[in-house]
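During the reporting period the student researcher (J.K.) took over the structure-prediction task from the postdoctoral fellow and processed the backlog of single-chain submissions. One of the processed entries is reproduced below for the supervisory committee.
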Amino acid sequence: MGVITRFWIFLVVISSIAGYSQEEEIPWSVDFRLKWSDFRGQARENSRIAAVTASGISYRFSSVERDGYYEVKYEVSTFFYPEKSWYQPQKCDDLVLSHEQLHFDIAEIFSRKMRRTIDNTQFTENVKAEINAIYRKTIEELEVFQDRYDTETNYSMNRAAQLRWNKEIKEALKL
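J.K. obtained the following structure tokens:
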């Protein structure tokens, strides 16, 4: 099919003092699968790119010090951004859609990784910087993983590799 898909990671950092974004967000859910109608952004005409998935990880937290220990309450979420995601219908099929879904699913895998890291971290009075560092490291690893995914699947054009990744990510998420 000779098409290319791309993903965007929107780094949406929501700390305990920041506000929420006003743009539409679809939270990741085990029961939600992307449909082409979810891709509402303006497609780039004459682009070799078939589709773009805009997804990202956000977090917010609060902390309290008790007897020298810092207790952190947090929320880490994965979102899809319909208005920033787009596709060219003439270049897309179900396999390309599964490729785009996996970009969203991979972001959720890294959200889970960030949650585990936070759960296993002993925080100090520098909790804000420490959580931000965990987030930055998670995003860096996510970007490398997403690039590897696109390379190995050749942006969904390598059908066998795409089907293998579909299976591996489904197993990783226990879907």
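The committee noted the following: The chain has a mean pLDDT of 89.
J.K. will present the remaining backlog at the next meeting.
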